[in-house]
Amino acid sequence: xxxxxxxxxxxxSPKKIVITTHANPDADALGSSxxxxxxxxxxxxxxxxxxxxxYPDFLEWMPxxxxxxxxxxxxxxxxxxxxxxxxxxxxxxxGFGRIKNMKEAAESVTAKVALVDHHLNPExxxxxxxxxxxxxATAELIYDLIVDFSGREVIDKNIAECLYAGIMTDxxxxxxxxxxxxxxxxxxxxxxxxxxxxxxxxxxxDTNSLDRLRFLGHALAEKLKVDEASRVAYFxxxxxxxQDFRLKQGDTEGLxxxxxxxxxxxxxAIIIERENEIKLSFRSIGDFAVxxxxxxxxxxxxxxxxxxxxSELSLGETEKKFKELIGKDILKTRIK
Length: 336
Ligand code: 5GP
Ligand code: MN
Known about the structure:
This protein is an alpha/beta fold and 336 residues long. The protein has helices spanning 4-10, 27-42, 75-84, 103-107, 138-150, 157-170, 181-192, 197-205, 210-223, 239-244, 255-260, 290-298, 315-335, and strands at residues 16-21, 46-51, 69-70, 87-91, 112-116, 128-129, 224-227, 232-237, 267-274, 277-284, 301-302, 306-311. Strands 3-2-1-4-5-6 form a six-stranded parallel β-sheet, with helices on both faces. Strands 7-8-9-10-12-11 form a six-stranded mixed β-sheet.
């Protein structure tokens, strides 16, 4: 869907715009939000970007980072901006459940709603729709939106680097099946427009703390469980690991991919206990749809080969539930 002309008509005069993205923002969530933010400012609108909660340090380099409003920290001001907004952008999510504590305020806005997202089964019915589940990243949809709207020349170095970060991470550094030739052409264009790919990649991937690297060694040696019969590998990370290794938000990101990199493994997971909340991430290769699995058993969703969810059980009970269900579901997939 692309309601470019309708949005263009609506944005003829300056508007109060709020950009929102999902909880625990990743590089695509933040990069697409800030890329769009910079673009809309250039068009002369009043723009605010609100995120439901904090994000990892390795995303703080993004141009515009100091402008981002954290809903958890500035609820009152954010609620006011949301209630006064004339246009609300929903980026990289398509159900208000994904913005956690902001849900109520976002659902009750009088603003028109624009949806820019690539997740399956959208729940939001927007006034302006830019949803496309074939897109590799929301940043790709923002690139298309900007180019259709004003032409590629309007993309400066700041916008190019924000969008590049989103595309690089959501494609797993251009390795996932979503990495089309169009993605490469778009990235080539972002480089021509000023994106320093080596800088962005170093800022995102090569800023490990020693604690994080030691934790990685510990997780690989002690926490990785492999069920060869089901071709499943997973990590279970408890609160004590966070304390022992002084882990920070984002330090477990990417860990699940090590489980999926084992020869023969088709489904990988990580189960994380953090501040009395159990969060699960799933990855798969090929046919097994982890978004359906997450949706059915762990109140989650996402993409066919990358999804997430949560659990209200204890860590041990969650692991047991996961092991039993994944074994059965994988069996079903093979019988089909
Ligand atoms: P990650 O494992 O990196 O947190 O998320 C992988 C994918 O699953 C992302 O596309 C993300 O949007 C989606 N996802 C992660 N957690 C949840 C969740 O709790 N609910 C839903 N609906 N999607 C999730
Ligand atoms: Mn995304």
